[in-house]
Amino acid sequence: MRLTTAGESHGKGLFCIIEGLPAGLRLDMAEIDCYLALRQSGYGRGARQKIEKDKAEFLSGVRDCATLGSPVTIAVWNRDYENWKAYMAPEGCDVSARTVTKVRPGHADLTGLKKFGGEDARNVLERASARETAIRVAAGTVCRQLLRALGIEVSGYVRAVGGAEDKGEYAFEELSRRSADLMMMDAEAEKRAKQVIDDCAARGDTCGGVLELRVKGLKSGFGSCMTYAEKLDARLIAALMSVQAIKGAEVGLGFGVAARCGSGVHDEIFYDQTRGYYRKTNRAGGIEGGMSNGEEIVLRAAMKPIPTLMKGLETVDYRTHEAVRAATERSDVCAIAACEVILESALCCELAKVVLERLGGDRMEEIAKRYGELPA
Question: For residue 327, what pLDDT band results from cuts at 50, 70 and 90?
């Protein structure tokens, strides 16, 4: 399976083509739009989310809510394009207006200009914008439905916002009760997190946090220890790191292994005739030797604070080289609830690739049969 996205933040829309999806995958269109709406929600979001009401439109590869085996094309149209058409139209527009030369720290602005040329960072930021993740959520929900058809589920929650941390541990089945506002599990931790966001908003500042992703139902043997490019942990971490705001990721205990002895890190193996091989702990986060081991996969990611601050950070005007305050392009204080949905989607996309690579097959019934025959 191969997934390609295209589109600009204030352009006509966002698009993706998914190649290699099997025929016969039944799609729940309403669920796709539901996840798109979740991506636009959350405590600390800005006014842009009130303008865009994202909906997915399938342009090819689907008939009567089922995939055909041909490339699937999805569009998420930008409603705000009408306000930007004069400055963004491919057919011709005023490129002298809405320019961004006060390059923003933490963004792709400066490095992108040095790489791609020109003096207007808009040509860079329109693609580098987190708005791009809307189409990845649409594609990720298609992949989520493929995984679910095999008995594989993906979920997650927000563990921390700024310094407000939830130190609880939760079973996969409990994650469905996460809050709508911040995707957190513990009400008291969420109350502290909202105060962190409110304090940042009052200062014109921003904040990030830590998210935990979980995969249940993935059988053993996905990924490989034979080549580093096939290592499951490397691929899943890369998927998380591909999301714009993510600056760190870990599997299982992650960085915590460095402070422990081996006896407190590695999961001992047991066997009985009923359960077969099993482990009493899951410190490895469901991946050993670059392969899934049948346990629940546990991943965590660190989201940086949004780099566009309302008060603006010190920077330089790219044209004049004068010291200035950075441009303000958006007004979110915290988008961690949206980030959780986006990370789940990115994870679903990569997992679907891994699963289809191992199982092959042109039709969902073939793939489901092959997955069912695998040992747990």
Answer: confident
